[in-house]
Amino acid sequence: MKSGSMHTSRLTFRPLLKSDAANLFMMDADPLVMRYLGNNPINNIEEVYHYLENIKQQYRNNGIGRWAVIENETNAFVGWAGIKFLDVLTNGHINFYDIGYRFLPEFWGKGYATECTKAWIDYAKLNMNIHELFAITHIDNLASQKVLKKCGFVQKNTFPDSTHGEEIDCIWFELKW
Ligand SMILES: CC(C)(COP(=O)(O)OP(=O)(O)OC[C@H]1O[C@@H](n2cnc3c(N)ncnc32)[C@H](O)[C@@H]1OP(=O)(O)O)[C@@H](O)C(=O)NCCC(=O)NCCS
Q1: How far is residue 100 from each of residues 73, 74, 124, 145, 170, measured CA to CA in Å?
Q2: Which of 5, 90, 110, 153 would be 173's cystine partner, CB 3.0–4.6 Å?
Q3: pLDDT digit string (tens) for 51-104?
Q4: Domain extent at residue 161
Q5: In angstroms, rounded to a whole number, what is the distance separating the alpha carbons of residues 75 and 13?
Q6: How many domains, the chain?
Q7: Is residue 89 part of a domain?
Q8: Closest residue (by CA) to atom 12 of ligand 1?
């Protein structure tokens, strides 16, 4: 999906834009958000611009990547969610699709991650020629693990992951159809 948008009852998804930079910076500078992501909050908006360039390249190369999540009722920026193509060897897998989400804390606890994940699973089933999705969470990120299990993912092995810099102990999840 290279353009357009997707909707659920409470949320809208669209490609991330340069105008999202301030919100992305607020999110990734928050230690609470980064607690299970290598615990490395950012302190420079240039890192966000670099991230956005990287995302744009993923949209071009893979036709997919994380998308902005907008709350329908308020039009507020919630965070991002979606499917990313991973071509880095991770837990013995390479060239696979990973589902993920990251929100500003004020939007936690409303069921939004579950709503997003179900929508992106439906998207993958309908629009992508794949029969499996994967996800990775920190071993202590119970909220994220709960989201994945509620959406049908099966918990597999634990493994050390250095995607976010510092090596962290993670759990591998799979969903097959
Ligand atoms: C992980 C995250 C996306 C969850 O978003 P969310 O919208 O609050 O998730 P949902 O409301 O859909 O579901 C969370 C579930 O976990 C539960 N939960 C929340 N915190 C929990 C905790 N500390 N221990 C156990 N369960 C917890 C909630 O009760 C809910 O379950 P329920 O529906 O049975 O009540 C959000 O916390 C976040 O953005 N965290 C920072 C970034 C991050 O860690 N991303 C994931 C990386 S793998």
Answers
A1: 23, 23, 13, 11, 14
A2: 153
A3: 999 999 999 999 999 999 999 999 999 999 999 999 999 999 999 999 999 999
A4: 6-176
A5: 11
A6: 1
A7: yes
A8: 111
